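Checklist before submission:
- one chain only
- standard amino acids only
- sequence pasted in full

Submission:
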Amino acid sequence: MFYMPLCRMPAALFFDGNPADLLTFLIMVDQLANMASITEVVCIKAATWYAHPDEAELWECLEEYNGNNYEEFANTVLYAYPGHGNKTFKHMVACPADAPLMDSYEEDAIE
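Returned file contents:
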């Protein structure tokens, strides 16, 4: 069974506030959540656990934070940052446990 890595551990994801890294971060959280078979509600919370506390505070103020749709949450977060360009997040419905992270999903997630 796969589990999400513990926050603030050396191997864990971390978003430091750089908009250029945001889409990749959101994709990685989604993929890890799919591999761990957690709900979208928990996936939304997990995104804030892996973000710098200042970023998490902003995200927790968004209406979508209390929702159950990670794709809507991720796109709202993206649009909150200048410099995100025209990138949008597209939720990957299923991620096979043996699939390499990012390789087969990154291009599909960027529209």
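Reviewer check: Confidence is low (pLDDT under 50) at residues 101-111.
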